[in-house]
Write a structure and sequence with these properties.
Layout (H helix, E strand, L loop, with lengths): L8 E6 L4 E11 L2 E7 L5 E3 L9 H16 L2 H6 L22
Antiparallel strand pairs: 1-2, 2-3, 3-4
Length: 101
Amino acid sequence: MDEIRLGDVIDDHCVKCRRITNHSIVSIVDGQAAKVRCRTCYNDHDYRHEQAPPSKKDLKKMELFKEVLATVDPASAEAQTPVPAEEGSKGRKRGRRAGSV
């Protein structure tokens, strides 16, 4: 049963429900599901192949990171030496004594 048909039930990620739920196939393009309808909330959306879309927060972070990388010169970055991490206090930890109440 390799061929999919309209109305077949498949699993997909629903953006409105925010989880993977059962969906009915609403439209087919080139033998692949193109649009599906969630059987829980009845929302129609594109078939996402069971993958959640990236969050807007992650997309914004990625965009800012790429912007910073575009401004950095790779030659000057290699010339800089890394700064070692600062060590914490080497003294004895203060705490309760074994016999005190």
